[in-house]
Amino acid sequence: MAFPFSSSLAAPSSQPAPLQPRLHLPLQPPRLSLLPFSRPFALPLRLSIPRPILPALPHALSSSSGGEDGDNNNNNNSGGGGGDDGEDNDGGDGPDNRGEALFVLAQLGRKLESLPSDLAAAVEGGRVTGEIVRRFNELEGSALFRWLLQFQGFRERLLADDLFLAKLAMECGVGVIAKTAAEYEKRRENFVKEIDIVIADVVMAIVADFMLVYLPAPTVSLQPPLARNAGAIANFFHNCPDNAFQIALAGRSYSLLQRLGAIMRNGAKLFAVGTSASLIGTGVTNAIIKARKAVDKDLVDEVEDIPVVSTSVAYGVYMAISSNLRYQILAGVIEQRMLEPLLHKHKVLLSAMCFAVRTGNTFLGSLLWVDYARLVGVQKVQEEA
């Protein structure tokens, strides 16, 4: 019996084998389209750059914007800054002052060694503000101020008041005219008869006017602290301001006792100045009187010599009390606290107002001196014959 499928199983088929399917994969995976809600995610990379270390800026400097605000602060405080009256906290803002001053030096492209030694020491000790350093740099732009800044006394006063030199010129310029006019106002018809006394007063004015502006002027103190073995009295007066009413620099303040000490210290100095000036003035006047008597014999009985010692002591006391108080109030209250904050942006008007006030003060001082000299008996009214 034949099986129908046996031949096919036993012998290989004469037809070709069917083809086997093959899967070809691409070398790179296909790029899928972005879903509508998908977005690229940024890699969380951070670049850390270290900041340069700069001196710390105080709040007063960081809040100011350029020269105008600096000028405002400058004149408001007359070269100073912040705090003031009454309480003792000397050196409280020293580190801030030091950082501010060094920052200003860096802005100006200057080194600490380029400053005078006393100013550099004050910067290191935090006793001056950056505005003082800026003012010093500005003043050095003038040949005259650069020369005056070599002297410590002028340096301390010019840094506190950039109009100090103008005020000094005003006082000395109007001194002779104002005092002569005041002498005439008091003496009137006796002016010629008392011309020798007038000359003595004018000569004393020329010598004393300079010191009357110089000594009571507000200053930026650049003097180093005294040695520890210095006496208590020396330390006390060393820490007193030059003007009893001046605005204190940032980081310093003066007690009421220290401000009273400033009046006493300047009074002692002006007593010495007044007495010396009067000795010169009366000496010159007596020499003129003797020369006039030698020429005109009729003046021997009419004109008397001026008492040198009593007049000199009286003038010294007058300067220690009247002149001392008037000029301290003028410089510290009227000019620094009243006129400068109002007119600090108008230097010409400020100078004109200072000129007017100082002229009036000089004239008032001459009137007061005549009355005082007659009261204490060093000058006598010449009676009409």
UniProtKB/TrEMBL annotation:
It is found in: Plastid, Chloroplast membrane. Keywords: Chloroplast, Membrane, Plastid, Transit peptide, Transmembrane, Transmembrane helix. The keyword Protein transport does not apply. One of its GO terms (cellular component) is chloroplast membrane. Residues 60-77 have a biased composition (Low complexity). Pfam families: RETICULATA-like (PF11891). PANTHER family: OS01G0957200 PROTEIN (PTHR31620:SF29), PROTEIN RETICULATA-RELATED 2, CHLOROPLASTIC-RELATED (PTHR31620). The keyword Chloroplast applies. This is Protein RETICULATA-RELATED 4, chloroplastic. It comes from Eragrostis curvula. Belongs to the RETICULATA family. It is a multi-pass membrane protein. Residues 84-93 have a biased composition (Acidic residues). Residues 1-30, 60-98 are annotated as: Disordered. It comes from the Eukaryota.
